[in-house]
Design goal:
three-stranded parallel beta sheet; two-stranded antiparallel sheet; globular
Length: 341
């Protein structure tokens, strides 16, 4: 079935419904007006809730396997419009598409006698991964790294590798090939992130990643909410960039000395969604992980939630959670039946 991706309706009780008032977004790459979307009224919400409640009385009694099959059919119908959906989301969010689909087979054959050179540390490999964990989608991901702590013994070398990789990232319209970093999604967030830049400059913090014109996509014609990914070298612990959530492509990098000290600094925040730890010493990484006041910890990996595992935050990083069996149970009422013989 053909679907128009320039006309939108609210769907209530299975029927499309328009509205008296409409809202439209802005393409963050070009600042052009996007399509109109209807603004639901309080009455629309009540109608939708009532329709859902009526459907629930019968849906809740459908066999589990049948419900799974129907949800699977819905997913297949959705995926059949994948290209249109991707184009729509790119124009709406400015997010580049980097994931490719492929089918691969793999087999192993013995090498024979080898000689191995084993480096003692994760820098030329780890630094780029740390950078992307902070700057992917211009830092506009809930689990994007917001602060980075590097042990003082490798701080200078690690920072230099981060800066080198960051300068090679291409910023521009996500619809253009080879673009790594798209724009901020809206003007309000763009202005907020600019305030972090202003504060860093006013306080004279060191900025080792000065913008390189070659990383900017010329086709943007200087329009759009684009910000060059930026690293700030060792700002104070109480600075705006360290204590507030930037949700944009600017990141503080700071050295640490003692294990207890870096744990305390990491926990010194009112947020607690996630953290990642990079180390060749897995036991030390696990020891630190259980002391962090966050919902999820990833060791030797950027933060990437798994649908099979419960995902939640601590402190002010949300209430409740999703994914995994525990996440599914959040949508259920618990009932215990006691039988005595």
């Amino acid at each position: 079935m053909a679907i128009e991706f320039n006309t939108f309706n609210n769907v209530i009780d299975g029927d499309p419904r328009s509205a008296k008032h409409f809202y439209h977004g802005i393409d963050p790459s070009t600042e052009e007006r996007l399509w109109d979307v209807p603004v639901a009224t309080e009455g629309d919400v009540e109608d939708a809730v009532n329709a859902a409640q009526r459907a629930f009385s019968s849906w809740s009694h459908v066999a589990f396997e049948d419900r799974c099959n129907l949800v699977r059919e819905y997913a297949e119908a959705f995926v059949s419009h994948e290209k249109e959906m991707m184009s729509l989301l790119q124009r709406e969010t400015g997010k580049p598409v980097s994931d490719e689909k492929k089918t691969a087979t793999l087999r192993y054959t013995p090498l024979g006698v080898i000689g191995a050179i084993c480096p003692w540390n994760d820098i030329k490999v780890t630094a780029p991964a740390v950078v992307l964990a902070a700057f992917k989608n211009s830092g506009q991901i809930c689990v994007a790294s917001k602060r980075i702590y590097v042990h003082q013994s490798i701080y200078k070398a690690f920072l230099a590798e981060m800066v080198s990789f960051t300068k090679g990232l291409k910023v521009g319209n996500p619809l253009v090939a080879d673009v790594d970093i798209g724009p901020m999604q809206n003007s309000m967030q763009y202005a907020k992130v600019q305030s972090f830049f202003a504060d860093c400059k006013d306080n004279g913090y060191r900025i080792p990643t000065e913008p390189d014109p070659r990383t900017l996509d010329e086709s943007t014609d200087r329009k759009g909410y684009f910000i060059t990914p930026t690293i700030i070298d060792n700002p104070p612990d109480r600075s705006k960039l360290v204590t507030e959530e930037q949700f944009g492509p600017i990141i503080p990098v700071q050295p640490w000395w003692e294990e207890s000290e870096v744990i305390a600094r990491t926990n010194d925040t009112n947020m607690g969604l996630g953290a990642c730890i990079w180390s060749t010493d897995i036991k030390m990484a696990e020891r630190i992980a259980v002391q962090l006041e966050v919902g999820s910890v990833y060791i030797n990996s950027p933060l990437r939630p798994d649908w099979r595992v419960y995902f939640s935050g601590q402190k002010e990083s949300g209430v409740g959670g999703e994914r995994g069996l525990q996440g599914l149970l959040s949508y259920c009422n618990a009932q215990a039946v006691h039988i005595y013989k």
